[in-house]
Design brief:
Blueprint (H helix, E strand, L loop, with lengths): L1 H16 L17 E7 L18 H9 L1 E7 L5 H10 L3 H4 L42 H8 L2 E6 L22 E3 L32 H15 L5 E6 L11 H13 L2 H4 L8 H15 L2 H10 L9 H23 L6 E7 L22 H4 E7 L8 E3 L3 E2 L3 H9 L15 H4 L12 E6 L12 E6 L2 E6 L5 E5 L15 H17 L11
Parallel strand pairs: 1-5, 1-6, 2-8, 2-9, 3-4, 3-5
Antiparallel strand pairs: 2-7, 6-7, 10-11, 11-12, 12-13
Amino acid sequence: MVENFQHMVHSICEFFINSKPITLVGKKKKMDRPNVIFILVDDLGWAELGCYGNRYNETPHIDNLAATGMRFTNAYASSTVCSPSRAGLLTGQAPPRIGITDYLRPNSEWFLPLDSGKGGFADNELPEDTDFRINPKILTLAEMFRIIGYFTCIIGKWHLSGYDKKGVKFGPEKYGFDEVRISEQKGIAGGSYFHPYTKIDPNIETVLGNNEYLVDRMNYEAVEFIKRHKNEPFFLYLSHYAVHTTLDAKLEDIKYFSKKRRNFTSENLIGLKEKLYFKAEIDKFFSILKEFLNFKKIRKYFMIRKRWFRQNNPVLASMLRSIDNGVGDIVRILKELKLDQNTIIVFTSDNGGESRVTQNGHLRGGKSFTYEGGLRVNQIISYPGVTKRNSTTEFPTINLDFYPTFAEIIGYDIPKSHKLDGKSILPILKDDPKAEKLTKRILSWHYPLKRPHFLGGRSSAANRKENYKYIKFFDDGSSELYDLRKDESETVNLVNVYPEKADEHYKILKKWVNHVGGKVPKGQVL
């Protein structure tokens, strides 16, 4: 008790020193405050989990989490790419309000705003006074928990500041996390999934033996954290790097799922999806032959090509198996320590799946697109004593909602100075009639790009009001309108069918973009 009190006092003093707004609320007793474990997967496709209908991947522990809690079918990220979505999650504020609307480049120090007037990215070291990161005066989710007396920890991916020669200068420890483990010092998009973790920290020593796998190590760290802090309320942010490309997994698992894929029925494979890419694969193969005429290169080609299957991907399935095992380990240790009934577990993704390697089911597009496949995510919340077991909700939500939801749960009054774009979804979790009010809300996204994303996404903004989804493309001024109730795949553009509704959405969207400080690239039009 003394240690916890000292920790709380330390947190309060630290926040006053940093001139951050503090509002303490003592309505909830410490014993009433649940632990929170937030598991975030990177680029997970909407249709990859068993509880979302997938019959190839094996995710029994995640599926069981859904069976003990609530599964969301209309949950959204606040952006279609990583950094802005994570910024929105940690602040409850729309990404353009924060100033991060695209992913922060891993090979440069910081992301330059659209109106910076500079043509590229900086070299050498990140200036101390740069604004190209989350404003340190914004109270993050972790800081909120810490003020109330929680011990906070992030394990894994941060991606909310750039990297200079010395690594991450403005990392998680500056934004409310008491403990930071396995967090990157460089962008790891090219892959750093096996020890030594050269792009995270090459000095990290193994604890799981030779050829230690990153996902397994992160799961191990999560379990050890829970053991260390079993006697105090904690907020654990388990932020996986997986299943981000380049995909990589343990060889034994890849062999297992490769065999399973070969034995999978044609009904499930829908005629083997890779046939659709036969010509592209042949062209790629012969280009390698022509350029290298090297047996090792050819052999390597055949070894890695399975990493780019779009449907029933054996490498992605293997990565998911490791993530799923970690969920099982976490639930198991919570039960052993008798913490399971006082711990909220959230499982979700930062954005839609990357279309080259994953599947978003019937949803159109993927990561980088403002279509449903890029914005809609898996979301499971298990809150013992609150969420009904094996329940499903169609209420539209966005990851900005976690900030006010957790604030309400732990008894924290958000200062009026903190501009909030999310809504508490506690009524949904409680199956409270008040949740009906949330059906009238408007969800909005702003994704400005100077040039199309390498995955195909275009500069655009979008909003959803009840069942209608509207998209405005900045690059050519075109717009699209879809009735998601009848057409979740966004195949029939209704702009010319319902011009008045499209115009209504456009006016709402334009007003919102201006309200949150959104900017449009030069030469493009909102």
